Amino acid sequence: MARVFILEEPYVSPQLGDAATRLGAPVLSTGRARRVLPEASLASDFEFAAAWRGAPDARLYTNSENALDWICEHLSDTALPGQIEAMKDKVRFRELSAADDPGYQFREVALEDLVTFDPSVFAGPFVAKPAVGFFSLGVEFVESPDGWPAAASRVGAAARRFGGGL
């Protein structure tokens, strides 16, 4: 199976750099890769994209979400950007994986409906998360329905602070 690597900020472990080198896998020439693997022969954007497209069974490894923009720009004609988007969108991911755990519950609630949402539909503690987010912003652990009003207020405040785009 072919492997390709995008090594990006903020950190590349020595083990990851060594593995990419040992495997002889194409590594995209990023600023971080050039600093971590100064002696390596790194692939240009074109060479890296060609290596990915040329190996139908290829696995792309990256250590950082900072690589996602490159993937969406340079591999936009492949299935990979859509697959990444499905994994990053918490609601979509849960819809796709619902059959794997029929007992798992989730609900999508619009931001404007947070205050009126009835959390008693869940049997126990639950986690409220924005559909798309980063750094765990707006994530709330709710132990009981009594804790919901305060949690909903914090989630709403976080969404407003970030322009509604959590």
Describe what you observe in this structure:
- The model has no long low-confidence stretch (mean pLDDT 88).
- This protein has helices spanning 14-23, 31-36, 45-53, 68-74, 80-88, 90-97, 148-161, and strands at residues 3-6, 59-62, 126-128, 140-142.
- The chain is built from 7 helices and 4 strands, in the order βαααβαααββα.
- The relative contact order is 0.11.
- It has a two-stranded parallel sheet. A two-stranded antiparallel sheet has the order 3-4.
- It is mainly alpha-helical and 166 residues long.
Describe the sheet with the most strands.
2 strands, parallel
Overall spatial form: elongated
Low-pLDDT residue spans: none
CA-atom Rg in angstroms? 20 Å
Count every beta strand, where a strand is a DSSP E run of 2 or more residues.
4
Distance between the termini: 37 Å
What is the string of SSEs from the N terminus onward?
A: EHHHEHHHEEH
Helical stretch tally? 7
List keywords for this structure.
166 residues, mainly alpha, two-stranded parallel ribbon, two-stranded antiparallel sheet, 7 helices, 8% strand
Summarize the structure.
38% of the residues lie in helices and 8% in strands.
Furnish the topology, listing elements before pairings.
Layout lengths: L2 E4 L7 H10 L7 H6 L8 H9 L5 E4 L5 H7 L5 H9 L1 H8 L28 E3 L11 E3 L5 H14 L5
